[in-house]
Amino acid sequence: QVQLIESGGGLVQAGGSLRLSCAASGFTFRNYIMGWFRQAPGKEREFVGAISRSGDTTYYSDSVKGRCTISRDNAKTTMWLQMNSLKPEDTAVYYCATGTGLTTGTMKILRQYDYWGQGTQVTVSS
User: How many C-beta atoms lie closer than 10 Å to residue 79's C-beta?
Assistant: First the structure.
């Protein structure tokens, strides 16, 4: 079965950095677009970014563009989210996700994702 396991969250001061990992199993990782989402308390889950199957193209929300980098290693079936210059408003639970029918045109749409990890908490203190 599909498993996505996030790790690397924690408490960091504003301006700091974190690197989140998403370890995938149970499917042919290299064939799937992968995405990162986040959900802050009282808010809807929102798109953070995504990476193409080969890893040569990445996409980011405006809120994190320039501060975050998504990468993947298909041999290790792992994806990462490097977050720099963190702000208190980045505080959220971060999820990795994928879906069977994702395209570059649909990858920002939450309901297009079929599989989700359990999430990892990121807390940025001011």
Answer: 27
Dump pLDDT digits (tens) for 106-115: 999 999 999 9
CA quadruple 91, 52, 7, 84: dihedral sign: negative
Give dist(CA 37, CA 107) in Å, integer.
Answer: 11
**Does residue 104 have a pLDDT over 90?**
no
Structure tokens at 36: 């990162």
* CA 81 vs CA 1, 42, 64, 101, 122: distances in Å: 23, 23, 11, 22, 12
Q: Residues 101-107: what's their mean pLDDT?
A: 91
Distance, CA of 70 to CA of 18 (rounded, Å): 12
**Distance between CA atoms of residues 47 and 62, nearest Å:** 10
Q: Which residue is associated with the tokens 């210059």?
A: 85
Give the integer Cα–Cα distance in Å for 70 and 61. 12
CB distance 39 to 24 below 8 Å: no
